[in-house]
UniProtKB/TrEMBL annotation:
Xref: SMART domains: HTH_ARAC, REC
Keywords in alphabetical order: DNA-binding, Phosphoprotein, Transcription, Transcription regulation
Protein name: Two-component system, response regulator YesN
Species of provenance: Sporanaerobacter acetigenes DSM 13106
One Gene Ontology term of the molecular function aspect: DNA-binding transcription factor activity
PROSITE patterns: HTH_ARAC_FAMILY_1, HTH_ARAC_FAMILY_2, RESPONSE_REGULATORY
BP GO terms, sorted: phosphorelay signal transduction system
Length: 262
């Protein structure tokens, strides 16, 4: 169930909202009340509600100030409840991302419709936070680890040539047979040597390098997943997604959405 906090200075209205609506039927439960914005802030921190019903004009701290101090710090959706004469003041709440604005007295049908919107909104916020937490260090994701992809690598000539070939041809089809033709050495020897010097098999290195390149493209906030997959050498879109998740623990769409919102 979704946890609801009611922040309203008029006790009759506050209690009326709390006890005269079928919260269970709306898949909600009222977890607390507050009679001003200051108490509301304390309750938000303590109870971690999913939805906050908040009046605008209250003593000690008004509803707008309470929202300004909390809506970006805690994950919840806000529904404004106020009188007709406060409508212009309530417009500023829209900029804070409130999900709905209801006039007193609160109509049951309108409240439940507002709750549905607020529930959808808080679910989106929660999903976004999960993605953001999972990708907290997204800009520093390093799928290809090691100094063998820069000038400091002191490996053998054959392995250096193999790495250089991948760097220059990653967008094309690459296989170990290409390396056999490039170096004149057997695929068994090349695979063994490459693994020994880089810790990766050749195929794994190719995939990791392509995924790193795809992340670099995503950082620009441009492109679609399927075009990015093709641009870095994956002809199979689903395979690209599978490999991407394997090395980053997230989906390409989560990465792309993150960078678009930066």
């Amino acid at each position: 169930m979704y946890k609801v906090l009611i922040v309203e200075d008029e006790e009759m209205i506050r209690k009326g909202i709390h006890y005269t609506y079928d919260w269970i039927g709306a898949n909600c439960v009222v977890v607390g009340e507050a009679k001003n914005g200051k108490e509301g802030l304390e309750k938000i921190k303590e109870l971690e509600p999913d939805i906050v019903l908040v009046d605008i004009n209250m003593p000690v701290m008004n509803g707008i100030t309470m929202l300004e101090k909390s809506i970006d710090k805690y994950i919840y959706s806000a529904i404004i409840i106020s009188g007709y004469d406060e409508f212009d003041y309530a417009k500023s709440a829209i900029k804070l991302g409130v999900s709905e604005y209801l006039l007193k007295p609160v109509d049951k049908k309108q409240l439940f419709e507002a709750l549905d919107i607020a529930k959808d909104e808080v679910e989106l916020k929660k999903r976004y936070e999960l993605v953001k937490d999972k990708l907290e260090d997204i800009e520093d994701v390093d799928v290809v680890r090691g100094d063998f992809i820069n000038s400091d690598f002191k490996g053998s000539k054959h392995v250096r040539n193999m790495i250089k070939y991948v760097e220059e041809n990653y967008s094309e089809k690459i296989c170990i047979k290409d390396m056999v033709e490039l170096t004149g050495m057997s695929d068994t020897y090349l695979n063994q040597k490459f693994k020994e010097e880089t810790s990766y098999t050749f195929n794994e290195f190719v995939n990791r390098y392509r995924i790193q390149k795809s992340i670099n493209i995503m950082k620009t906030g441009k492109g679609k997943i399927y075009t990015i997959a093709y641009d870095v050498g994956f002809s199979n879109y689903r395979y690209f997604i599978s490999v991407f998740k394997k090395y980053t623990k997230a989906t390409p769409s989560e990465f792309l959405e993150y960078f678009k919102n930066k």
